[in-house]
Amino acid sequence: MTSDSAMTDEVLMLAYRDGDARAFDTLYTRYKGSLYRYLLRQCSAAAVAEELFQDVWFNLIRARERYEPRAKFATFLFSMAHNRLIDHYRKNSRSVPISYDDDPDDAPLVERVSGDHRDDPAWQAEIGEQSRQLQALIQELPEAQREAFLLCEEADLSLDEIAAATGVNAETAKSRLRYAVNKLKQGMTGRRKSA
Questions:
Q1: What confidence category does residue 124 fall into, taking pLDDT thresholds of 50, 70 and 90?
Q2: pLDDT tens digits, residue range 26-79?
Q3: What is the DSSP secondary structure assignment for residue 154, as one 8-state letter?
Q4: Burial class (CB in 10 A: 0-12, 13-18, 19+), 11
Q5: Tens-digit pLDDT profile for residues 3-12
Q6: How many Cβ atoms from other residues are within 10 Å of residue 22's Cβ?
Q7: Helix (H), strand (E) at residue 11
Q8: DSSP string, 117-140
Q9: Which residues have CB under 8 Å from 33's CB, separation 6+?
Q10: Which among 106, 93, 176, 169 has a CA at the least distance from the CA of 141?
Q11: 18 secondary structure, DSSP code
Q12: Which residues contact 111 (CB under 8 A, 6 or more apart)?
């Protein structure tokens, strides 16, 4: 028998749909961190992110009997999260953020591209500062660009999967991600020069 950890997400969701509660536990363990970070970085309030996080998992539980693997499980899950965010924006501000209507853990991203200097205190302080700067820049991105970036980085979704999760075409998803990455690169370069 195959252990849950060796099963694909889609097979686990089908097993959960058919009554295997352990399969849900495995999916929850795999996605709890990336889903929570995605929601937190989208709404910037821990209490709201926690509420949305719980709602997404409850929605998944309610939808399990209808689940069919038409796309990657991650696309299915983050599409639910995207829809819950849109509902939240509509309920609390009576409109979706303008940039949604426009077309225009654990190791931080900076740490993954900086090499291995983990024992150097100066390097650790620098990485901490760069991580804070990057997180601030992510928060400054327009909502749709921030979402595309987080779905790529946190959920590891492809452009087609980002498009499916957010309900836009692949070119729009590509454009949003490209703009986000360019703004983040410019911001990090600009902040290093001013430091």
A1: low
A2: 999 999 999 999 999 888 789 999 999 999 999 999 999 999 888 899 999 999
A3: T
A4: middle
A5: 667 899 999 9
A6: 12
A7: helix 9-17
A8: -TT-HHHHHHHHHHHHHHHHHHHH
A9: 105, 106
A10: 176
A11: T
A12: 127, 131
- CATH code: domain 103-195 is 1.10.10.10
Return the domain boundaries, the chain: 1-96, 103-195
**Tokens at residue 96, please?**
């979706």
Classify residue 162 as left (phi > 0), alpha (psi -120 to 50) or beta: alpha
| Residue 114 binned pLDDT confidence (cut-offs 50, 70, 90) | very low
Residue listed under structure tokens 């991580």? 131
What does the CA dihedral 80, 66, 30, 76 come to, rounded to 10 degrees?
Answer: -40
d(CA 134, CA 140): 10
The rounded distance, in Å, linking the Cα atoms of 13 and 19 is 10
CATH fold of 1-96 reads: Rna Polymerase Sigma Factor; Chain: A (1.10.1740)
Same fold for the domain at 1-96 and the one at 103-195?
A: no
CA distance 195 to 191: 6
